[in-house]
Amino acid sequence: MYTNGALIAKETAKKLAEAGNITPAISVEGFEKETDERRGKGIFKKILEAMNNLNEAGVPFGISVTPTRKNYALLTSEKFIKYFQAKGSLYTWMFQLMPIGRASFDLVVTAEQRKEMFYRTRDLIKKGYFVADFWNCGSVSDGCISAGRSGGYLYIEWNGNVTPCAFNPYAAANINEIYKRGGTLNDVLKINLSFKKSENGKIIMLLNKVIGFYRAR
Amino acid sequence: MKEFIDECKPEPIDESAKQALKDPEYKEKMIRYDEDLTKVMDPIWEKEYKKSKMI
């Protein structure tokens, strides 16, 4: 569950523990300065409070970060990862900033920075930190894990819209409509049967998968 | 990506996603970014993934 963590009070943490099937990935942008700069003053302290509450309740959690041209070095530093590990974070998900619509490209990491991130993240992983960069770690997951591929995932929005990925904002189906017709999530997964792994790996594999996903609507 | 979205017409989930399909400037920037990435990252993919799979 991706969250800014601001509403995870003690009672909420207790409910999450009782549910037993949720792990919050709490969004941070760096330390206090960077996080409050983007998310509002005082948010960082709320996040730390939420982490305390989750620790007390025994809920496993991690952090979710958005590397940009400005903060990528900090977010891929051992100092940063260690800090949140000490707060109880079990994992770090990295989603490099990707603008949609008319958002600016000014903060998107450059190609050279992405290359640098690849090696920095790999060093962290070699040291035993549980870090995944959803753009750069394709070499350890046989490419893109989207569109419900084997061992992968797909994305269901709050309103039931199903997209291949949280970063591919075009819906091929709506799970609520499928349920109304007597179907299940398996029917959504069947959309993807046209998938064939390509020798070229990465992009071709993703495109085949997503094309199959959309064409089967 | 743009071509098969045009062909299959999946529903944009919000206004930004809708606008992204109509914005030539956005398309241009994405293509340029992809070209930059291809130059820098493809050799890494070749080395770290494809060659390791052949071992």
Q: What features would you highlight for this structure?
A:
heterodimer, A: 217 residues, alpha/beta, TIM Barrel, 2 domains, five-stranded parallel β-sheet, three-stranded antiparallel β-sheet, 9 helices, globular, B: 55 residues, mainly alpha, 3 helices
The chain-level mean pLDDT of chain B equals 83
Overall residue-averaged pLDDT value of chain A:
86
Oligomer: heterodimer
Tally of contiguous helical segments of chain A = 9
> How would you write the strand order of the largest sheet of chain A?
1-2-3-4-5
Number of domains of chain B: 1
Instruction: Report the span from N to C terminus of chain A.
Output: 27 Å
Number of strands of chain A: 9
Number of helices of chain B: 3
Shape, principal axes of CA atoms of chain A: globular
Please characterize this protein's 3D structure.
Chain A is of the alpha/beta class and 217 residues long. Chain A has two domains: 2-140, Aldolase class I (TIM Barrel, Alpha-Beta Barrel); 155-215, no CATH class. Helix content of chain A is 41%, strand content 12%. Chain A has helices at residues 10-19, 32-39, 43-57, 72-75, 78-86, 111-126, 175-180, 185-190, 202-215, and strands spanning 2-3, 25-28, 62-65, 92-94, 131-133, 155-156, 161-163, 170-171, 173-174. In chain A, strand 1, helix 1 (10-19) and strand 2 form a beta-alpha-beta unit. In chain A, helix 1 (10-19) crosses helix 3 (43-57). Chain B is 84% helix and 4% strand. Chain B has three helices and one strand; from the N terminus they run αβαα. Chain B has 55 residues and is mainly alpha-helical. Chain B has one domain (2-54). The interface between A and B is medium-sized, with 30 and 30 residues. Strand 8 (170-171) of chain A pairs antiparallel with strand 1 of chain B.
